[in-house]
């Protein structure tokens, strides 16, 4: 039995492991003279932005990164006053609240720069901006041909303070990929243009993978995301510890005879009499239906297979001759300790990345709780 009651589906976040992971990453950055930004976008990758942000700052982060301005303002409303960057919003977003709240803006084009400057003039302040150069990801970021004009405009506008120059790596999780050095070279060229325009901004390029493998690219600030949550973005082992455990419990058990089939489509049939345990978590709770026939859970000290198709609200576990009591904890993924399943294992089985698995735990029916100091 679990030592404490919990909802039908829950993610439990260990904030001490967040601190452990962030301290490791911040230590790598500090060895190169760089500060650390903890990226808490998408509700901290499903882990909860406010408690994770606080834990990260306690462990050595000095910056926070959000995707949208709304995400950043949520942190400000919670009383978090650390330097903060927000970098992707819709074309009609009003930047005025960013000026009042002291949130830095990541900008990629002349239109965004003008909107930020106009907001600053309305607010009677200056917009703190980080100009993003596209060095080869071909996603967000200013294309090289437009970069000199963007930099000159920013340098000439008294309503704007250019705090940083930044970009994002496409293949840092593949150490040795030739695009990494190519992007680093383009980034240096873009920085030189900024210097020629009279700017002296900080530089940031390294994500989690580059923080772990490319100290030469740490520059002034690294941005750590997935690794802070304990999921390793690079092939070599690192002392990163997954902070999220996804768990449920046994609702009931039943004994079935050989030849009986389970769940929709009868894709699994018992070869011998066995005990089945019903667990109230399904694809509406973040268990991918594509894991049907490939999923194990941790139940009463060992891995046990989920049989039949994953349903919207439930899965069925084959327990053999073991009969777990109703209320027994079922770990769907977690730290992997003792051989239990992990989010990375789920991702590998269905051809995705563990980022998607943990972020997908932001669901209405999935409760969230915390262990470790808050």
Automatic annotation (TrEMBL):
Primary enzyme class: isomerase
InterPro entries from the UniProt entry: Ala_racemase, Ala_racemase/Decarboxylase_C, Ala_racemase_C, Ala_racemase_N, Ala_racemase_pyridoxalP-BS, PLP-binding_barrel
Entry's Gene Ontology cellular component terms: cytosol
GO MF assignments: alanine racemase activity; pyridoxal phosphate binding
One biological process term in Gene Ontology: peptidoglycan biosynthetic process
Catalytic residues (positions): 41 (proton acceptor), 264 (proton acceptor)
Residue span, Alanine racemase C-terminal domain: 243-371
Function: Catalyzes the interconversion of L-alanine and D-alanine. May also act on other amino acids.
Family (UniProt): Belongs to the alanine racemase family.
Designated name of the protein: Alanine racemase
Organism per entry: Amycolatopsis albispora
Higher taxonomy: Bacteria, Bacillati, Actinomycetota, Actinomycetes, Pseudonocardiales
